[in-house]
Amino acid sequence: MKTIRLSIIGFGAVGQGVARSILSKNEYFNENGIDLIVVGISDSKGSEVDALGIDLENALNRKKQKGTVANGKESALEIIEHVEHDIVIEATPTNIDDGEPGLSNMLAAFNSGKHVVTSNKGPLALCFSELREAAEDNGVLFRYEATVGGAVPIFNLIHEALAGNRVIRIEGILNGTTNYILTRMTEEMLNYELVLKEAQELGIAEADPTYDVEGIDSACKLVIIANSIFKEDATYRDVDVTGITKITPEALELANKNNYVIKLICEAGNGSLIVAPRLVPKKHPLAVGGTLNVASILTDLAGRITIIGKGAGSIETASSILSDILYIARNS
């Protein structure tokens, strides 16, 4: 049995989803010869550390009842640098201004010889090359499947299943909130403001939806794809971005009459990075509805491969994090 010790840095929806997934999949890990032990958890108010393994049920209940997991004073960086473990799961909130605290957490993990698995887009959208080089310099692995597409395995598919192929172009829908809004506007011919309010009431859109509806979230994800797959050195500021706030019911109705839908499409390839509303034929693989995400990957050998799935949600995102943990457990 191979023992893998983890820390969970950030215990919001994603961090808690990881904890729940580890609990529910414990038998599966053991069947595969892996014993996962969480030795440190940190949230914005404090932490818990136990070298013998934290009781995750207890931690989740305490978070629910008290709003924090804290029963100790160790900071996130103290856990990363001084608690003995193998993998740091960095799940703090995305910050696209300076990438903090995620950027410092990841660099500290690499410099202390720990692998990183993350769902945090901000540091990768700003400093992808720096992070990749830090991981390589320290001989550790850097995995980030959960940063793009939730449960949709874009990076695992391209880097592993499609290894040997040259990726020519990638197009997709990488934001479930905007896809939901455009789908509802099309189905009911409702205006943007009304559907946005509905999405906020359902918890699909944030109270401040700017990152989503202005295309910034999609741009961050597109940059991670470009840097990881096309080996570019871009930041989200290099993306040509147009959001969905000015799309009218009339435009959607006209598109509908001509057998099209309007979708917020991300495009990467041949050096271009574009996020903008596009007309998509109704029967096209990119014409998915609701909160679904989709990525259509054009390769030189395998042709075009399209994958569709849930692009958000704590358990869905945890699914990608678990796949990265297992990759490291098997390959480190």
Overview of the structural elements:
With 332 residues, this protein is of the alpha/beta class. The protein contains 13 helices and 12 strands. The strands form 2 sheets. Strands 3-2-1-4-5-6 form a 6-stranded mixed beta sheet, sandwiched between helices. Strands 8-10-9-7-11-12 form a 6-stranded mixed beta sheet. It is globular, with a radius of gyration of 20 Å. The two termini are 15 Å apart. The model has no long low-confidence stretch (mean pLDDT 95).
Topology of this structure?
Blueprint: E1 2-9, H1 13-24, H2 26-31, E2 34-43, E3 46-49, H3 56-66, H4 76-82, E4 87-90, H5 102-111, E5 115-118, H6 121-137, E6 142-143, H7 154-161, E7 167-173, H8 176-188, H9 192-201, H10 210-213, H11 216-229, E8 240-241, H12 249-257, E9 260-269, E10 272-281, E11 292-299, E12 304-310, H13 314-331
Parallel strand pairs: 1-2, 1-4, 4-5, 5-6, 8-10
Antiparallel strand pairs: 2-3, 7-9, 7-11, 9-10, 11-12
Give the overall silhouette: globular
Number of β-strand runs = 12
Count up the helices.
13
The CATH architecture of the largest domain:
3-Layer(aba) Sandwich
- How would you write the strand order of the largest sheet? 3-2-1-4-5-6
The gist of it:
Helix content is 42%, strand content 23%. The protein has 332 residues and is an alpha/beta fold.
Salient structural properties:
332 residues, 2 domains, single chain, Dihydrodipicolinate Reductase, domain 2, alpha/beta, globular, Rossmann fold, 13 helices
